[in-house]
Amino acid sequence: MTNDETNLNDESRTVVAPYRAFSFARIAAITTNTLTELTRQKVFYFLLIFALLLIGSSAFLARFTFQQEFQILKDVSLGAMSIFTSLLAIIATARLIPQDIEDRTVYTILAKPVPRFEYLLGKLMGVLLLLAISILVMGAMFVVVLYVREQTALHETARQFANAPRDQLDAALRGLRASALNVDILPGIIIIYLKACLLAALTLFVSTFASTNIFTVVVMAVIYFIGHLQATAREYWLQEHTAGWMTRAFLGLVALFFPDLQAFNLIDDIVVGAAISLALFAKTAAIGIFYTLIYTLLGTFVFYGKEL
Amino acid sequence: MRVSIAAAMLIAFGLIRLPAERAIEMQHRQEHLRGVELNLDLREKIGQLGFVAALSGFRSIVADGLFLQAHVAWERTEWGRVLLLFRQVTTLQPRATLFWDMAAWHMGWNASVAAFNDRTQPRLALRIKAQREYFALAKDFLERGIKNNPDKPQLYESLARLYKEKYKDHEHASEFFLKAAGRPRAPSYDRRFSAYELSYCDGREREAYERLRQLYDEGEKERLPTLITRLKFLEEKLDIPPEQRIPKTERLNR
Fold this sequence. Notes:
- The complex is a heterodimer.
- Chain A is mainly alpha-helical.
- In chain A, 80% of the residues lie in helices and 0% in strands.
- Chain A is globular, with a radius of gyration of 25 Å.
- The mean pLDDT of chain A is 85.
- Chain B has a domain at 150-254.
- The interface between A and B is large, with 63 and 54 residues.
């Protein structure tokens, strides 16, 4: 065997690597790339708005009693978390595929041995990672502000009740702690994240057949509103038998087509001190994950038939 | 073609998830979540914009916004507006005891005093009538608040205070302090306050004495100045034998 033949054999050994139908490494590469792209688009600016909102409302609410202040602070912060993550999930996801088509990046990627579902999964994971980072940062800011205010309130209350009987002081401090930071907020934040994941997966599914990202955003806005009414439509559909068949058919379609987003609104009750049972949290989390998986699979199914 | 198949799959998925969604909703109702029905009545109460926001899952933020408006209306002593806004706030957030409590406080303590001191109304009888109407509004807020939050002691306490301070009805005040004491995480003073109020009720002195004495016997922690004063008063009134009375040397000024 000549030297040239030996070199050729060595090269062919390195080039013909075994192809795997599913590769975490490929998905991870697309995920990292998507996250980097989204970060470069300065999506994290909304965190600054969140911080300003949090600090601003905290300063403004100083004129109220501590209980009132905590309640409004929690409502505003968790509501802002919910709206920012939902918006981010929809807007960031809606532009993923159209942007890649416009930049022709999708052709470069899919020309390589990358299956379409890996491409789609990588894109979605990038958004989910972005949402996780966002909610972690917002959650941390919220906890810090609430903790600082709680400590101030505890010292102030202890000073005011210095001459009161011990049990009245204890009751006041207990009431204050109950209205401030409590562990029940954590499942609420996780549910906000899962709702955002669901919305991201649904947006990805819509964007696989949408022609523009504006169309995707508009459709998602409609889905968002109807999704919060789905439970009402579903109950009416299942229980009200006196309505006309057209009404019932319409309500049935709403109930079957749209996700029940109201099921993820536990925060409204958590902020007023309602404890969410583990069973309810587990069921809500499970249905959130289930929705996300199904919408991802449907998106993949449609994307396989899409002409690029 | 694929989109149509996906739509059919979406409906099939809808049928699969339907029982799970209903189970979650049932559990929400069992745990007293979803206490608000988003219907036309609510839309009339909170207006179009508020209703849309509430529909979008921002019920608590809308309630906070209305609460802030109610606070401004209170600063301007616009009592009609305060009442209207608090009705909206409590409709949106029926699980927030704070809102029920604040609504009752504004009606029972602020608006009622303003009505009684109203210089534009020269007739005392009408001023008293207006004042009592505000007491009734406060009572209504607290009763509805209790109905929505039966396990929380705060609103029972507030209703007891309303009976005590505004209606001068010690019997009902005692009853609601006792109900508050029976709720989870109730402060220990509710039981004491109930006994104090009972000690003012004619014909129930014996029962009041027994309850106060029981508290006294529980130890130093309960032997507070008011309790000792009321106990000594009842000992005199009921003519309790000297050997059964609490020591005369019991200090009142702790």
